[in-house]
Structure formats: structure tokens, C-alpha cells
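Sharing a chain and its predicted structure for anyone who wants a worked example. Both blocks are below, sequence first, C-alpha cells second.
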Amino acid sequence: MPGRLNAAFAPTKLMRHLKLILSMGFCLVTALAHGASWLTDLNAGRAQAAKEGKNLLINFTGSDWCQWCIKLNQEIFSQPEFDVFASKNLVLVEVDFPKRKAQAAATQKANATLLTQFKVEEFPTLIVVNPQGKIVHRRGYLPGGPKPFVQDMTRALGLATEPPSAMVVAARPKPAAQPVQELPLYGGAPAAAPQRYTELVLKNISGTRKRRFALLNNQTLAAGESARVQLGDSEVSVRCLEIRDQSVVVTVDGQEGQREVFLRK
């Protein structure tokens, strides 16, 4: 009769439909669980962090060639535990230096400037800036997955951790308020003195073949640009004429002729 299912067939068909619905629901929940969103504009990240009262996590990375950057993304940034922590406490900004992935010239220029501004010398480098714009934590790759990473960030940011319910016996009297101490950079390790250059040093070449940038001492230049470069206790005017695969050709104010400076290895 119309409207009635065959008694032998109905359970099987219903179970198949139920499995399909459950499978689709699980996929949807999984997709939503991995929702960490990374900005690529630092100014936009700063504005959002200030508005939401969150800390800013800046990830300096070589996303398509740096082995430890790739491991960091796979082991931590793509995990749901990190997503939960980041959504509550962080605004995420990626400063990328890819070798194969296409990147706009303006982004390359901006990222090269940030490399110098934050004194980044290796990838990955993670820098946390508080809502007031002050650097409060700096670190590289951390093995072990999202749990030790979240614990490290929790300690560095001074966030409260919730003890297991079985251990909560009674509220203890709060100690007298202590002056707020600034969190140390580099996890409390002694900070090295700023590097003093006695000669021109080519530290890095980034960008694409059509649009390259050279990190020369403390300044990032493109071909045709000039900048005041730290040298000894003063600065000299350097003009970048050409950026090659392993060197740059420059002129230095007050010195005759051109010079070729090779990449330090």
C-alpha cells in the first residue's frame, strides 16, 4: 500500500540515510573546528587586536620551503586545541616569505620591512604583541603539538589556568597586590647586545626573481633604492644598484666605484 515501507527493506534503508546524515554532520563540525583565520596585513591585525583587547601573534614564516615552519603549521596551527585558544586570546597575522608561491610586490616590500623592524633572523619566528603595542613574547618552533605550545603562550601572556575540579578545595586568601612586572623577551634568556656592523653584510635575499629585496646590515632595499645603513658607530648612505642570486651591487656615499657584497653563509 502507498505510504508503507516493505518490512524487510525499511530498516536497512533508514540506517543508510542515518549514517549519511551523521557523516555529513561530523564533516561540518570538523570543518568548523579548524577555523583559525590568519591576516596578512599587520596594520589590520593591530586594529583588530586593539578593538577586541587581544594579543597579536605574528608568525614570520617561509610557508612553502621552511621545514620547521611547515611542521609548526601541521602540528600546532592546524589543530583544534590551538583554534580554541587563539579564538579567545589572539589575533593572528602571517608575515610570509615564500619561494614558490606567488606574492604581490607590495606585500613583499611590507614584509621585508617588518623583517628588519622586528629583527627577525630565522624562520619560524613568533612574536606576541599586547593590545598596547608592546612585545611580550618571542619564540621559534616548539615540538610536542598544541598542548605545550598553548601552555607556553598561557604562561607568557599571564593568563589564568583552570585547575582540575577535584583539586579545588577552598579559596585561599589573596596575597597583597604586587607591582606588575614586564614579561621578559626570549623566555627570560639574557638578551644579546644589538649587533654592531664594522662592514657591509648581506644577510638575506627575499622576494621573486622580478622583485627582489636585500637585507643589508639593518636595512632592506630593492634595486634602485637608497637608505642609511648602520656601519660602526654611525650610518652611511648606500644605494642598491642590482640584486643577484648570491650578492648585491651597491655604491657607498663617500667611496668611489661600485662594490659587490656577497651573501653571508
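Comments welcome. The chain is about 30% helix and 25% strand.
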